[in-house]
Amino acid sequence: MSLTTLTLAAPAANAGPLAPLEWGGGPLTVEALPHVTYTAHRGGALEVPENSMSGLVAAYERGTAQVIDVDTRILRDGTLVAMHDATLDRTTTSTGPVRSLTLRQWKKVRLRPGAGLPGSWHSERPPTVAEVLDRFGGRIVLMLEAKDPRGLRSLGKLIRARGLTRSVFVNSNKPDVALRAHRMGLLAQVWRSRTQMRSDRPEQWAGFVDVLDVDHKARDIDLLRAVNSGVPRVWAHTVTTPGQRDRALRLGCNGVITDAPGLLARTPAKGVKGVGAAGLSERWPVDPM
Fold this sequence. Notes:
It is a single chain. The longest helix is centred in the first third of the chain and has 10 residues, at 53-62. The protein has 10 helices and 9 strands. It has helices at 3-9, 53-62, 103-106, 129-136, 152-161, 175-183, 194-197, 220-227, 242-250, 261-266, and strands at 37-40, 67-74, 80-82, 141-146, 168-172, 187-192, 211-215, 233-239, 255-258. The chain is an alpha/beta fold and 289 residues long. Residues 1-16 and 278-289 have low confidence and may be disordered. It has an 8-stranded parallel barrel, surrounded by 6 helices.
């Protein structure tokens, strides 16, 4: 793919927020991602309220990441919603398990923005996964983590119904869930902790994993094993500083998953040949915030 194609595919500031898909020539797919990719973890949880619609819109409009990550959980009635924790306690004004709610009850939940976030944020209803896909699907590549594997089939249906099988990564900590996603025709991603990486043999997953999501705190030897596994994309999580990013890139990772995409986009990489701010910024317009 040419640099021109990549530039046109990116969400440009002068195109206006959430421009109709037909203006960009069709859904943005994984093939349009730059060589070094930035993912806004939960929308960029140090910069916006995590897994909130307003935070995801901000992440999209700022253009400091090429992928937006959203956590998914399943309600009692089978509805998939955007939420990281198994309970409502940490991020909302409510308490109790997410899985005990119906959609009607979910619509009464209100997010509680973190006090340390920059800017001014208001309490709002957390979105459903369908709402996230309808708002952003095909406009930017999405990463949806299946926190509850029971919802994988429903997640696949939502993705396929919108023609987004090449535009959404389905993430899990479990390789067997990634294999199920792959067999469903979805883009499969698997994340691993630094402890798991000590004994992992990721080359065994190269046939069905599209992104290997590795802990930046892992030992050099474990990161190098991941980079050389044959999995096409190896992205380091959860990066919050330029130094953490630079180490991961120097070891051969070709992407980072970050809570601070704005910070990384403003800070050129050091000691990484050919990589500046926001990965390869000449391929992707960057909003300096």
